[in-house]
Amino acid sequence: MQRLINWFEIPVSDLARAKTFYEETFQVVLRIENMGDVQLAVFPYAEPATGGALLACPEGRPGEHGVVIYLDGGADLAQPLARAVAAGGRVLMPKTEISPEIGHIALFADSEGNRIGLHSPGRVAG
């Protein structure tokens, strides 16, 4: 197994609003794809990196108590947390150190009410 997560989907009720939220928070451009009654806004990625998308479909229900994924928050989690708040989200757990080796995590609620994690890597031992 090369990686545990191959793909992720974040359910949304308003794709345009959520797309804007994530583009502003992570300073990226998401690509819209349509598959029947399912719409996706795909995060940029290059193989072999894990890919993922915002998912707008009748079965998708966003919520604060569902699955938590941890996205790369860069070296300083304060920056994406501040951008998330500015884009309409809210901080659920501020930057918190797990350990010097593992790094820091934080949680925020996105524009749709999903609980999303951020991770910042720790020091490499050696």
For the largest sheet, list the strands in their spatial order. Answer: 1-4-3-2
Q: The biggest beta sheet, please?
A: 4 strands, mixed
Q: Report helical residue fraction.
A: 10-25%
The average pLDDT value, as a whole number, equals: 90
Q: Helix and strand succession? A: EHEEEEHEEE
Task: Describe the model.
With about 130 residues, the protein is an alpha/beta fold. The protein has 2 helices and 8 strands. A 4-stranded mixed sheet has the order 1-4-3-2, with helices on one face. It has a 4-stranded mixed sheet with strand order 5-8-7-6, covered by helices on one side. The longest helix is centred in the first third of the chain and has 12 residues, at about 15-25. It starts with 6 loop residues before the first strand and ends in a 5-residue tail after the last strand. The mean pLDDT is about 90.
Give the secondary structure arrangement, pairings included:
Blueprint: E1 7-11, H1 15-26, E2 31-35, E3 38-42, E4 51-56, E5 70-72, H2 78-86, E6 90-99, E7 103-109, E8 115-121
Parallel strand pairs: 1-4, 5-8
Antiparallel strand pairs: 2-3, 3-4, 6-7, 7-8
In summary, what is this structure?
The protein is α/β, with parallel strands linked by helices.
What key attributes describe this structure?
single chain, 126 residues, alpha/beta, 2 helices, 8 strands, 38% strand
